[in-house]
Design a protein that fits this description.
2 copies of one chain form a homodimer. Chain A has 198 residues and is mainly α. Helices cover 66% and strands 0% of the residues of chain A. Chain A binds a DNA duplex (30 and 30 nucleotides) through helix 2 and helix 3.
Chain lengths: 198, 198
DNA sequence: GCGGAACGCAACAGGTCTGTTCTGATAAAA
DNA sequence: TTTTATCAGAACAGACCTGTTGCGTTCCGC
């Protein structure tokens, strides 16, 4: 986004930026693609002149970058009694995010069009995926140190097993709304105990 | 696809249909979207005249339907000694499919643009997802009947846990090539035994 | 050999999006 | 009050895609 420092003149309407981001989320949520979405459509849906969009964002990429920032929820801190509870709490946040249909559509579109928006794709992994994954690793390591989780497990592998079902649902655009707390608890329970008969 | 039965006249070049499907896979694999991909670009990449495409497929949807059919591998039969081995074998097929970059891109694009291609989306779930899921359910049920898998597990839930990590990788477009046999075995092993300390 | 269909190539009108450039009006600071 | 930047709205050329039509050519079966 282009931030300009000037002394005099009319101030930019802050609602314009919000309206533009909301318009992108609405339209992508309705099935538009990132490359296919036109500034005309965005301006129209936002109730804003195209001029105002071009004044703020040089390219569509810049606008999408802002949208990605806006839907990136803060990373919560965890320090519950057990790693098990921390894992469940973290997965619950992930599931909650899945329930935001517009954000899910935006991320699906980004993953599908990664080739067309390499910078967006890079930032998504660096700023959203990586920190959350690192947090999961830390919790799992703690569980091992506490004697709660077997010490011979492959940490990244365990993480994939935990988050996989949730990400797969987001990726396939499943419309079924899961209860975050209950579902995360069930996942952790099953991964802890396994399905095999002792 | 439009199949016409005529008695006389020049025959259609069968290579045209293959070239068109390959062109779609190539272009989508390179980052094109289903809505954004133009018949001009497809014809150009396939080395075929636009006319030939219009003659075969009324709309882009029809062409994509053919492409989806082409990348749908046959459903293998399973009857190994144990449910554990059947599950691993089935997951290995899924992982193998993930390794086909073009097919993965095509499915990612389809999921991202489901709203624009409802018929394609419906067929994908009915013809590709549903039969494979049903097969997984059957194997899990058999494992329960054989006393190999705990009888109190939720079958669809176990299935999601098993296939989730693989689908999540496909959805995120991970470029890392996994060994199908080894990875599927590791997933099944971990899901059977669990990560918890007994 | 001849009719018929598919072939590649080219052209066309109608539509859309982009990026830029005008306007006149509005709002806020100097 | 004057200055200055923003605002909405409209216009423009250039590019692209679509769906259709016409052309002459190539190939296959009758």
């Amino acid at each position: 986004m282009t931030t300009v420092r000037r002394s005099a003149g009319r101030k930019r309407d802050p609602r314009t930026e919000v309206a533009a981001r909301e318009a992108v989320l609405d339209l992508v949520g309705e099935g538009a693609t990132l490359t296919g979405l036109s500034l005309v459509a965005i301006a129209e849906h936002a109730g804003v002149s195209r001029n105002s969009l071009y004044r703020r964002w040089k390219t569509k990429d810049d606008l999408y970058l802002d949208v990605l920032d806006a839907i990136n929820p803060p990373l919560p801190d965890f320090d519950r009694p057990s790693a098990r509870e921390d894992l469940a709490a973290h997965l619950a946040v992930l599931i909650e995010r899945t329930l935001d249909r517009r954000a899910s559509s935006m991320l699906r579109a980004l993953l599908a069009e990664a080739a067309a928006f390499p910078e967006l794709h890079r930032r998504y992994f660096a700023e959203i995926v990586a920190p959350r994954r690192e947090m999961m690793y830390r919790i799992i390591r703690r569980g091992i140190a506490d004697g709660e989780i077997r010490s011979d497990v492959d940490i990244p592998f365990v993480n994939e097993l935990l988050v996989g079902p949730i990400l797969a649902r987001m990726g396939s655009g499943s419309s079924e709304a899961l209860d975050p707390r209950e579902t995360s608890r069930r996942i952790v329970d099953l991964v802890y105990s396994g399905i095999g008969v002792p």
